[in-house]
Amino acid sequence: MTGDNPLQTSYTQMTEKTVAAPTKAPPRLTTLILLSAISVLPVNMILPSLPKIAAAFHADYALVNLSIGGYTIVTALIEIVAGAISDRYGRRPVALIAVSLFIVASAGCAFAPNIGVFLVFRAMQASIGACFSVALVVVKETSGDRGAASRLGYVSMGWAIAPMVGPMFGGLLDELFGWRAIFVVLAILGAAVLALSIRELRETSTRASRSHANYLASYTQLLSSARFWAYTLCMACSMGTLYIFLGGAPLALGQSLGGSSATLGFYMGMVPAGFILGSYLAGRYASRNALSIILIVARLFTCVGLLVGLALARSGITHVLAFFGPSMFIGIGNGLTMPAANTGVLSVRPDLAGTAAGLSAAMRLAGGALMGSIAGLFLAQSGTIHALLVMMLISASLALFAAFYAAFLDWRTSKPVS
Questions:
Q1: Which of 81, 244, 305, 361 is geometrically suited to a Cys-Cys bond with 375, CB 3.0 to 4.6 A?
Q2: Rounded to whole angstroms, how far apart are CA atoms 211 and 206?
C-alpha cells in the first residue's frame, strides 16, 4: 500500500473536474433517497415472517434463514461488481437494470412454489444493492466534496429509516395478508422507483471520464491508495462498533429488563435514532466544514459517549439509560461519519468512483461483521456491561485513529508541490 503522491493528487483533481461536470441536470434529492432506501428495505423486512415461510415450504428454519445471511453476502458481491460496471457503462443503466431485476425477483419470491425457487429469487433481489453505490456516486458527481457530504447526510437518513420501519411494515403486511404480500408490495415499490428513475435519473458520467481499465487493475489502484484504506477502515471500525452493540446488548442487558424483548427493542432503537440525528447534522453542517473535521468530530462523539458510559458503569450506576444513553452516540457518530467518509472514498479516484463505492461498501460490511464476530467470542465468556463497553470503545478508538490518519493524508496531499 502506498500513499497518494502529489502527481497522483494532481491527476485526481484534474479528473474530478471532468467527472463532476454532468451533462444533464442532477436528479432530485428525493429520488436518490428513495434509491438508497429501497436498496436496504428488503434486508430485514421479512424477519417477522421467517417462521411462517419455513412452515409454508416445510423447510428447516436454518435453511430459510439463508434468505437473510445469504442475501447480505450476495449484496456485498453485487456492490463490488456493479460499482465497477457503472464506471465503464454509466450510472443510469446499472440502476435501471438493478431495479428491474429486483421487481422480477420480488414477484418470483411472492409466487415461489418451494424453498429452492424462493432462495434463488431472494438472491436475485440483492441486485437492488447496486442502487446504493449508484446513489452515492451520483451525489458526488453532481456536487463538490462538502456539498456531497451534506447531500449524503440526507441520503443516509433514508438509508437508516428504511431498515428501522422494515420489520414493522413487513410484520403488519404478514398479519393482514400473509407473508407473500411482503414481496408483492416490494415489487410494487420497485416499479414505482423504476418509473421515477426513468424520469429523474440522468447520466452523470461523461463518456470521456469513464474508465476503460480492466477491473482487476481498477481494484489494484484503489487498494494501493492509503487514503482509500484510511476512509474505508474508519467506516469498517465504525460499523464494527455498531455490530458489537447489536450483538452484545441483548446478552448484557436482556435479564436486567425482565426478559422483555419489546422493552429491549425500544431501548436499542436509540442507536438508529442517533444515526438519523447524526445524518441530519451531516446534511445541515457538512457543507460548511472540511471533511476531515467532520470525520474527527464524529469519531470523538462516539468515543466520548462510550467513555462516559464506561465511567457510569464503573461507578456502580445500573440504570438502563446509563448504558443506552451513552450508546446513542454510536449512532450519532456513525451518522456523521458515513457521509464524510464515503465522500472521501469517492474522491480518491473520481474516474473510479463507482468501483470505489462498491469495493468500500463490501469491505465496510465484511470488516464490521468480522469485528462484531471477534468481540462476540469475548462477550460469550464475559457478557457484562463493562466488557461490552470496552469492546465498543476499542472499535471506536480504531475508527478515530483511522479518521486522524485520513485527515493527515488529506493535509499532506493538499500541500503545494515546491
A1: 244
A2: 10
- The model carries a pTM of 0.77
Q: What's the pLDDT tens digit per position in 335-348?
A: 899 888 988 888 88
Biggest distance spanned by C-alpha atoms of the chain: 71
Residue 140 burial (CB < 10 Å; 0-12/13-18/19+)? buried
pLDDT at 152 over 50: yes
Rounded Cα distance between 122 and 120, Å, is: 5
Which of 188-202, 261-275, 352-366 holds the top average pLDDT? 188-202
Within this chain, domains 19-203 and 225-412 share the same CATH topology:
yes
Q: Where are the domains of the chain?
A: 19-203, 225-412
Per-residue pLDDT, 255: 67
- Tell me the C-alpha distance between 67 and 125, whole Å: 10
Domain 225-412 sits in CATH at: 1.20.1250.20
* Residues 41 and 173 sit within 8 Å (Cβ to Cβ): no
What pLDDT score does 114 carry?
A: 93
Round to whole Å and give the CA distance between 64 and 53.
Answer: 7
